[in-house]
Design goal:
With about 100 residues, the chain is mainly α. The chain has helices at about 5-10, 20-25, 35-40, 40-50, 60-70, 75-99.
């Protein structure tokens, strides 16, 4: 409808949702990765990436990994994604090595 996004949904829920939701701009969904990495996954990250035997240390300097894990480098918003990427890379490298 005249360039309005999700017009059918907005019309259907007009009486059930606050006006700021109905008129609000489209926005993405972001998972709480930083909270997960500091909470339930903190031990996994520490044991995996913090280990001197971590395979990612072949590709990245120890001081950079340590600074990233301690939060001394990179903007907070990007830090969680970098830690997660290293974690996934480490787990993948371990799996490849086991094959």
């Amino acid at each position: 409808r005249a360039g309005r996004t999700k017009a059918l949904l907005r019309d259907a829920y007009r009486d059930q949702l606050p006006r700021e939701v109905i008129r609000g701009a489209k926005r993405g969904f972001e998972i709480p990765l930083a909270r997960w990495l500091q909470g339930p996954l903190a031990e996994v990250v520490g044991d995996t990436l913090g280990s001197p035997a971590a395979r990612v240390r072949t590709y990245y300097e120890d001081k950079e990994i340590k600074a990233l894990l301690e939060g001394r480098s990179y903007r907070e918003r990007n830090r969680a994604y970098l830690v997660y990427a290293l974690l996934v890379l480490e787990l993948w490298l371990r799996e490849e090595e086991a094959r």
